[in-house]
Amino acid sequence: MFYHDDKPVYPLGRAVPDPRAAKWLLPLIDHLLGTAMGLVCLRHSMPWRDGRELLSTSGTEALSQFELMCDLFEALVSNLCAQDLVDSGLSDHYIRHTAGIEPCCARPLPVCGDPVTDIHSAIARAQAARTLCDNLLRVIDDPASIGAVLYVRERQLDTAAKLCELLSEVKAALAEQGVYAYNPAFDVCEMAEK
Known about the structure:
It is built from seven helices and no strands. The protein has helices at residues 19-42, 49-77, 82-87, 91-97, 115-139, 143-177, 188-193.
């Protein structure tokens, strides 16, 4: 179902090691992994083919953005000694993972099975990622890091816009048969009768 290509989604430049920026990146890494998992799970409760395709594509993109941020994290902590990591506030992370990454708080999107509610959750998640990127852009100063975070921000805005279009299509489809008269992801028999 998935094809992995080693070609990067964004050509990450040579980032200057900065353990503070690496620490600030961890919440975005967690968020992107949770978003990717959630979007891929949402596709299974989406009754419309176009919606499933969009959710699959968006989940795969979020996973590639997660991978990009992990690569950036690795570049930001490369060639640093243990004391540099401890001094920057990454001591707990260093003790548990050395310079590796283990997303510890990645929570997937809640899936309730109602397409309207689920799409609203996905839009909110994309906007939250944009906010994380905006906040990171205010505090980081390395050009390679800024470029990568800007790339993720742009992709999240694009995802939110596509999800808004999908939401309009889903609402229009539901309006034809009576909005909220049934849950189209669950009440398949009732849909067939109408």
